[in-house]
């Protein structure tokens, strides 16, 4: 395969990692990890994603993954 064909076959856009949703069993709150790897605590408000706060997992944090179909309830980006 020549060099031009190899370049044409490469993907042109980087694939974005979706947000990951967790529940922290120790604090009983929703936690989101964004595509950049940052963690956010979601408060119990009408717009939790807009009201998110930085979250730093600590030794007592018990992050349990939550199925993605819950994201719509919290207004999370896909």
Keywords, separated by commas or semicolons:
mainly beta; 24% strand; 9% helix; five-stranded antiparallel β-sheet; globular; 78 residues
From the alpha carbons, calculate the radius of gyration and give it in angstroms: 17 Å
Strand content: 15-25%
- Number of H- or I-type helical stretches: 1
Strand arrangement within the widest β-sheet reads 4-3-2-1-5
Class per helix and strand makeup: mainly beta
Fraction in helix: under 10%
The average pLDDT value, as a whole number, equals: 82
Note the gap between the termini.
37 Å
Topology pattern, helix = H, strand = E: HEEEEE
| Biggest sheet character | 5 strands, antiparallel
Low-pLDDT segments? none
General shape: globular
In the residues, how many domains can be counted?
Answer: 1
Strand element count = 5
Task: Describe the structure in your own words.
The mean pLDDT is 82. The chain has a five-stranded antiparallel sheet, with no helix packed on it. Helix content is 9%, strand content 24%. It has one domain (17-74). The chain is globular and about 30 Å long. It has one helix at residues 3-9; strands at 20-24, 29-33, 39-42, 53-54, 63-65. The protein contains one helix and five strands, in the order αβββββ. With 78 residues, it is mainly β.
